[in-house]
Amino acid sequence: MNYYAIELHSHTNHSDGGFTTEELLGSAKDFGYDILTITDHHRKRNG
Questions:
Q1: Counting Cβ atoms within 10 Å, is residue 25 exposed (0-12), middle (13-18) or buried (19+)?
Q2: How far apart are CA 35 and CA 23, in angstroms?
Q3: The pLDDT of residue 25
Q4: Which uninterrupted H or E stretch holds 7?
Q5: How far lies 44's CA from each of 6, 20, 22, 37, in Å?
Q6: pTM score > 0.70 for this model?
Q7: CA-CA distance, 8 to 4, in Å (whole number)?
Q8: 26 three-state secondary structure
């Protein structure tokens, strides 16, 4: 049986996270994750 390290809920700085997409991917690799799901919130545009 195969097991994977998975992060199912993360946010980038496009939403309310503190890292760019590239930084978040790099951090996930550094922590040993095999799969990363980015769950940014939709931001309303003004106008």
A1: middle
A2: 15
A3: 97
A4: strand 6-10
A5: 29, 19, 23, 22
A6: yes
A7: 12
A8: helix
